[in-house]
Design goal:
single chain; 257 residues; mainly alpha; two-stranded antiparallel sheet; 6 helices; globular
C-alpha cells in the first residue's frame, strides 16, 4: 500500500496506487502475481489428481468440487448438454485463474487484485473474442452464423433495418467488451475503497491528532467489513466472467438466436 503521509496531509489513494514501481527491469508486481496465479492453479489441480481415490480426501474433494461446479453449474447450463464437454477445461481454467487473481487483493502482504489492471482482462478478451465467433462459424458456416446472430427469426423484415445494427453492435462489440470491463471495474473500485478506509484510518491514528483516534477505529472497522464484502465480490466476478464466457459460446453454437 502506498503511504498517505505527506507533511501531515492526507493524500487520498488513486490510480497511481495501481501502478507500483518495477521490481527489477520492467517486471512489476502485477506481472509477478499473474505468473504466480498460473502456478497456484496448476499446482492445485496437479497435486489433487496425483493420487486419485474412490473416496476422495479433503484436497481431492475440493478440486473435484471446483471442477464439478465449473462443469455442471456453468458449462453444462450455458452451453448445453450436447456441446459443453470440449469447453469444460476452458471454463474451469478461467474461473480458477480469475478467482485467484481477484483474491490476491485481500491476501496479506500481497493485497493487489491483478484484474484491477485493465490490460489483463483485455488480454483475456483478445484470446476469447475469436473463440466466441469461430465456434459459431464452424457450426453454422459464416453466412448461417451471421444470419443467426444478426437476424432473429420471427421479426418483421422492416424491423431488421433498426434491429440488425443493434445486434451487430451488441454481439460483436459491446457484449465482449463488457465482459472485460465488468471484472476490471469491480476489482479497481473495490480495492480503491479498501485503500481509502485502511490508509485513511492509518492517517487518523498516526497523524491527525489524538482526538481523532476513535475515528480511526471506525475506519479500520469499515475496512474489515469491506474486506469480507470484497471477498464475496471477487468470487462473484470470477463466476460471472466464466458464466458469460460459457453463455457466449453457447449462444454461438445454438441453432436459434
Amino acid at each position: 500500500m502506498t503511504s498517505v503521509l505527506a507533511d501531515s496531509t492526507f493524500v487520498p489513494p488513486g490510480v497511481r496506487d495501481f501502478f507500483p514501481p518495477a521490481i527489477v527491469g520492467g517486471i512489476t508486481k502485477p506481472m509477478v502475481l499473474l505468473v504466480l496465479s498460473v502456478v497456484v492453479v496448476a499446482v492445485f489441480f496437479l497435486v489433487a489428481v496425483r493420487d486419485l481415490r474412490i473416496v476422495p480426501g479433503r484436497f481431492q474433494f475440493a478440486a473435484e468440487s471446483v471442477y464439478g461446479f465449473g462443469r455442471d453449474s456453468i458449462a453444462r447450463e450455458q452451453i448445453g448438454g450436447r456441446d459443453f464437454a470440449p469447453y469444460v477445461p476452458l471454463i474451469v481454467s478461467l474461473f480458477t485463474f480469475i478467482l485467484v487473481n481477484n483474491l490476491f487483493g485481500i491476501i496479506p502482504f500481497i493485497q493487489f487484485p491483478t484484474m484491477a489492471h485493465s490490460g489483463f482482462p483485455l488480454a483475456l478478451l483478445i484470446v476469447l473474442y475469436p473463440l466466441f465467433h469461430v465456434v459459431g462459424i464452424r457450426r453454422h458456416g459464416l453466412g448461417g452464423y451471421l444470419k443467426n446472430q444478426l437476424f432473429p427469426p420471427g421479426v418483421p423484415k422492416p424491423v431488421y433495418l433498426m434491429l440488425t445494427p443493434i445486434e451487430l453492435f451488441l454481439r460483436f462489440f459491446m457484449d465482449p467488451l463488457a465482459l472485460a470491463i465488468r471484472v476490471f471495474a469491480a476489482m479497481f473500485a473495490g480495492h480503491l475503497i479498501l485503500l481509502v478506509f485502511t490508509l485513511g484510518g492509518e492517517f487518523l491514528l498516526l497523524e491527525a491528532g489524538a482526538w481523532l483516534t476513535p475515528v480511526s477505529l471506525v475506519a479500520f472497522a469499515f475496512a474489515i467489513a469491506m474486506t469480507f464484502l470484497e471477498a464475496l465480490v471477487q468470487v462473484l466476478q470470477a463466476y460471472i466472467f466464466a458464466l458469460l464466457t460459457a453463455n457466449y459460446i453457447g449462444r454461438a453454437l445454438a441453432a436459434d438466436h
